[in-house]
Amino acid sequence: MVSPSVIVATSSIEPTPMARAVDLDDLIPGATPWELEIGFGKGRYLLERAASRPQTRFAGIEVASKYFRLVAKRIRRRRLSNVIVLRGEALYLLSAMLPAGFARAVHVYFPDPWPKSRHQKRRLFEADTLDLLLRTLEVGGKLFFATDHLEYGDTVRTLLESHPGIRLRVRERGWEDGPRTNYEAKYVREGRPICRFEIERSATSLAELLHPEGAAKILSAAASRE
User: Which residue among 23, 25, 26, 112 is the active-site one?
Assistant: First the structure.
């Protein structure tokens, strides 16, 4: 059995001259599909899914060193050969190191909503960063998202509904396989409302993945430099 591969990436959000794309097929050879979880925490969903789907390859991103080390240790202990983990800021890794169109599915569950206005630029779901998430998907691939922060959920829904390159499904009920994270299991027991979205990439080119608002910002910034 191939020993598990573990990648440690820089936690800096700023690109560096050393940044280069990761050759995922070199780390876990094969032609089977990939799935990505962003913010895997203690690894409940990532590890259970990797163990139950040995013919699928998995990658996980986590910024917290404690959780990264914990899950890396669990991967080794469980002898999982189809999963790798990366430590670092998600937006940095998505923009600088992970290849476009590699994933059949991307999972983002209960991310930090960054409720303060001055922090909202750190959100994964913003008009000018959404394409970084969507570009990891193959055409027809799906992004699964959940949050208990209803205001953030409404913001994300509005953002997605105005994106021409995706198909959005609002999940009024839970996932078919039940709660996917420890947070979700806890919130379901407490009866807390949860926003769940399933987003399918329909755009066939990377240019189509730019949200109209994000594209407008790029054009505005380019014009201001002329």
Answer: 112
